[in-house]
């Protein structure tokens, strides 16, 4: 809740700085994992781990990333549906994290959430008039006829003119339900919409019409929108700026077209390359491998380093890129305890002969050359393999870490990679490599 | 490639009996899949593409489903007429399925290795089933197959689960794989990984793949040939490059134009899907088609040959029309909707341009 005041003044490097509607600094949301009767905390899921951004007035900021990157947690903490662990949130200048009950209610009138699944938005017992008008009654408008009039007007604006207000929302198609959800979110005349995957459940052809409606509504109602999505193509259509999240951090941000045309972060590049495009001629030859690591124990330094296709070699080491990657993969496998020597033992060969065979088998498995070109590297690798064969995984790890630690794992003084400007000066990215 | 098809669907019509009446899901649908190729069945939800995939091995429940017409030919059998015993020897064995939701395909109570081994055992009694399960998990790219085999579905991510489902589908070394939106529930990077994997496995095993999807981007990445389906009927078919670079049917064009992220803006497809109970006369797409003319309402257009292995079911490709008219800017008669794009795009507009203008003229 509290935060260094210096943090508050730091501007979102992607925003022009002019009095944003929503301003988030140093946002953290950790979920403790507890055990036992006393609820002792054994670890914490760092769902959001130090996120800064602004949403300008009338602007749309797209927050993208894979599932588990923390983007939905940003949405719920920014609206204080969940209490953040740390950080400040300012809305129209007011500190949201410090608002009392009444002020919080006022804030919730001005900032509305739209969910991915419109079915979850509506109580199945309510009619359209009740469901869309519900926020009005919650906020104290008792006059039923006035509520109906407002609802009817809004339904017209979302392209649902003439529908029967006494039908139930579930009788409508997915696209229509999302229009109803939009009408509901607008009924209190908000300034900010936080839209969490609002079109992900819809067919492509319906997506287009809902997005075009949202764009119209944004103009009509002068809305600021925080648009959360895993779909880069939709973000490109709809947003002014983009912020790419990975494991609780924003790894790149900038104007949408700049980031799409010239991505600086290897993760952004990988996301863009993975988009299936109608002019493609086959799946990407080498999609990004592996999965997003566990957020209870994010990798040191750059959080993407465990999957990065352009991981930087340690100074002084000069392997070809492919070999370096395989050695690094080998080190990671050793550290995870993933290497089961039993898999490589072919029955009868025992004793010393087996040692040489195991060395060869391991190198084959990880596609490593019989000897590395670099003498110092080969010494470390050879000895580590010997340690493994002797059953001492820890010593193997230590020996590998002597030589094969990437600068990307170290980060800056705080153990992270700081944001630096993209080469066009528009936006920033977090990566040791020059853009 | 002039191989004879490994799977061939001819004139298939499937309907469902419901309390509201009989609903037609697919109508006179024909396509074939050859060894080693991927055929994509593309359409929006409600297009009948899933019913088509599931009717092949008669996975659709009957009743309420009914095959009203047509045949499914596989290795000398007509699967629409095959006995349940014959079907059992084929389904999951020689024709395997992979579905959108891997969660539903796996049993939470058993380790994934056990489940893959069980699939192997179902088809042949193999004492090495457990080892072969691990080999299969290795083949689908699990980093530590020995350990993964001992894990339970809840311990695995969606992407890993889908790999396990693919391993189980391959357990009996099938000839044909029917993959129904296998990557739709996955993140984009995982989707790319699974598509890559399927392409590799297909090449290794010379599989015929029927890939069912709504996503034209995915189609471009996996398909050799495409069959575009709307409301259960084929609108267009052909080699993937030809169809996507030079779409013929107005529906295919509209689908492509509605795709986001090409940096060219996207055109919403106005109107909504036909009510399966009250299907439009003539071309099923005519109520939403910007080029529709009176004749489109009168009869169902035949599929007409428009190029090598290409057809389009649109009267503009017939003798009485010029296809160049399809390139004209449409919508000049569309009731001033340009001022308010999106606002008229709701499903309420499923009366088409001319349908909605008719009553006005009548009332004068």
Write a structural description.
The complex is a heterodimer of chains A (about 425) and B (about 375). Chain A is of the alpha/beta class and about 425 residues long. In chain A, about 35% of the residues lie in helices and about 15% in strands. Chain A contains 15 helices and twelve strands. In chain A, the strands form two sheets. In chain A, strands 6-7-8-3-9-10-12-11 form an eight-stranded mixed β-sheet, sandwiched between helices. Chain A has a four-stranded antiparallel β-sheet with strand order 2-1-4-5. In chain A, strand 11 and strand 12 form a beta hairpin. In chain A, helix 7 packs parallel to helix 8. Mean pLDDT of chain A is about 85; it is low at about 1-10. Chain B contains 13 helices and twelve strands. In chain B, helix 4 (about 110-125) packs across helix 5 (about 130-140) and helix 7 runs parallel beside helix 8 (about 190-205). Chain B is globular. Chain B has helices at about 50-55, 85-90, 100-105, 110-125, 130-140, 145-150, 160-170, 190-205, 215-220, 240-245, 250-255, 295-300, 355-364; strands spanning about 5-20, 20-35, 40, 65-75, 75-80, 95-100, 175-180, 210-215, 225-230, 235-240, 305, 310. The longest helix of chain B has 18 residues, at about 190-205. Chain B is about 30% helix and about 20% strand. In chain B, the strands form two sheets. An eight-stranded mixed β-sheet of chain B has the order 6-7-8-3-9-10-12-11, sandwiched between helices. With about 375 residues, chain B is of the alpha/beta class. Classes of the chains: A alpha/beta (about 425), B alpha/beta (about 375).
